[in-house]
Write a structure and sequence with these properties.
about 180 residues; five-stranded parallel β-sheet; about 35% helix; globular; FMN_Rdtase-like_dom; Flavoprotein-like_sf; ISF_SsuE-like
Length: about 180
């Protein structure tokens, strides 16, 4: 049974990217996976100090909510990141977490497949270019990992706008295929 970790980074209640994560989670559960969801809402995650002590220690010297999330990332077979698209990029809170997950670089991490689930008010095909570049840059540092898939919900702004959007079914099917 694969262990799937879904990390949501929207800070809004009933967000569209959270809805994508929920659909992906339902699909993964229906596909027989063990699924854990972690929201960055209300989490205390400080900026990386760039001290690189984590490369020797394999954990971060900063004691906050990033440490248990990074440990969950290390133990997951599959990680899905759900994010709103801000200024054609990943949400800042997700980028901060990815920076803080630097301790995983020199560790014996389990994850192989990474998924990106994103929502945006903008609906152009190029809207995902920045978020994909951002997540791919992180993945490229982990030689055993790959970007296994993306789902984009464009044209959704207010919470709940995603209802009935075809991306929900895409997220479900992608989760089920893990």
């Amino acid at each position: 049974m694969k262990r799937v970790l879904i990390i949501t980074s929207s800070l809004r209640a009933h967000s569209n990217s959270d809805a994508l994560a929920e659909s992906f989670a339902r699909g993964a559960k229906d596909g027989g996976c063990d699924v854990t969801c972690v929201s960055l809402k209300g989490k205390d995650i400080a900026f990386c100090r760039g001290c690189l002590a984590c490369q020797e220690r394999q954990d971060c010297v900063i004691a906050d909510d990033a440490a248990p999330i990074a440990e969950a990332m290390k133990e997951a077979d599959v990680i899905a990141f759900a994010t709103p698209v801000y200024y054609y990029g990943l949400a800042g809170q997700l980028k901060t977490l990815l920076d803080r997950a630097n301790c995983l670089f020199s560790s014996d991490y389990r994850f192989r497949d990474i998924y990106l689930l994103a929502s945006a008010a903008e609906n152009e095909a190029t809207t995902m270019d920045g978020p994909i570049r951002g997540i791919q840059g992180w993945i490229d540092c982990f030689e055993k990992a790959r970007l296994a898939g993306t789902v984009f919900a464009g044209g959704v702004n207010d919470g709940g706008d995603i209802e009935g959007h075809p991306s929900l079914q895409q997220a479900y099917e992608m989760g089920k295929e893990i």
